[in-house]
Amino acid sequence: MKPVRVGICGFGTVGGGTFNVLQRNFNEITRRTGRSIAVEQIAQRRPNPNCDVGNTAITDDIFAVANNPNVDVLVELIGGHEPAKELVLTAIQNGKHVVTANKALIAVHGNEIFAAARKHNVVVAYEAAIAGGIPIVKALREGLAANSIDWLAGIINGTGNFILTEMRDKGRAFNDVLKEAQALGYAEADPTFDVEGIDAAHKLTILSSVAFGISLQFDQCYTEGISKVSAEDVANAESLGFRIKHLGLTRRTEDGIELRVHPTLIPEKRLLANVHGVMNAVLVEGNAVGPTLYYGSGAGAEPTASAVVADLVDIVRDMAVDQNVRMPSLAFQENAMSDSPILPMDKVVTAFYMRMTVSEKPGVLAQITQILGDAGISIEAIRQQTHVSSQVPVIILTRPVAEGHMNDAIKAIEALQDVSGEVARIRVENLDG
Ligand code: HSE
Prior knowledge:
- The chain is of the alpha/beta class and 433 residues long.
- It is built from 14 helices and 17 strands.
- It folds into three domains: 4-133 and 301-332, Rossmann fold (3-Layer(aba) Sandwich); 136-297, Dihydrodipicolinate Reductase, domain 2 (2-Layer Sandwich); 346-428, 2-Layer Sandwich (Alpha-Beta Plaits).
- The structure holds L-homoserine.
- L-homoserine (HSE) is lined by residues 132, 157-159, 186-188, 194, 199, 298-299.
């Protein structure tokens, strides 16, 4: 049988990894597909020193690949919005299947891209866009298809997790660790995507749609990064039996879907709290299976290539039975998508960690607890550090409360004469189902 011919656009870290995995595991992959996969053409800006491409046709024009009649599947690994979007739409119009690792593209333009793919009866596969090599899209769309998903929470940005891990383990400063993450090649081209949570929000938006069958709504995702997490907060969390993790969390509630990315205190005994360095993990709560946890490398050449090639294998298997589009792009049938709204953040209920600096004098704590009491906010724990000067740090853990009430209470606390500066706050999640 003739091989399935693949065109790779973008031949950097992941492109090179994909090429090498396809070569190295050729026999094993062909045993799985029943039909070999050949790289027909590569579009690259410069040669990848980690790959021996032999006689493979090379171009510097990505659209030459999208318009090449000998290419059956286009692998998009250039990243970003444009020209990636135009490239993918061109390939779709030319009847080619697409495999992409581009989370921004799917999160922001996915609705349009999937509609075009349906029209042209081709697959757009994107496992590699989320959590690198972890087969989380596969797990949600197929392995957990019997379940109604209640919620999922994930560490889905390796750079952010690396920074928080180093801050906790070695007491290192934020900027110092970020520089190292950049040097190690973990960080996005624009590292604010990692530290301000945009990369995680892209990934979470996609996961939420696959979990709940809602359209992609990246602009509705609440996004808060880790740049304001201080070494003091990391140490305080530790002393209270928590770890701070940068979580993406999406949950189905009666009033809508929570969709949020932010630093979060989670109990140190949770497996998710023990995911360190650049590793990723996603915890999914299904109503039949209960909690399931997926862990692995969230970035890197061959871990990401593992997901790209798995998508290729799926496409080749479907081609073999002449069934191009077996799987709905977002897991649910097009006519069965839900219009559940995304819940506004002020309606989201979580517990909170608060840190504030107050004057060391009688009655200050009473004023603060009065404000919290009046707002209906119950205190789980309160700690005032032994006083070393006239200004002392106070830490408060609350019981769960609607975010809108907490915002009002924080405003009132910040307005007190004996509270200086802003109140730092980090949401707390128990993740116990
Ligand atoms: N910058 C991303 C991360 C790469 O750190 O997780 C993988 O998407």
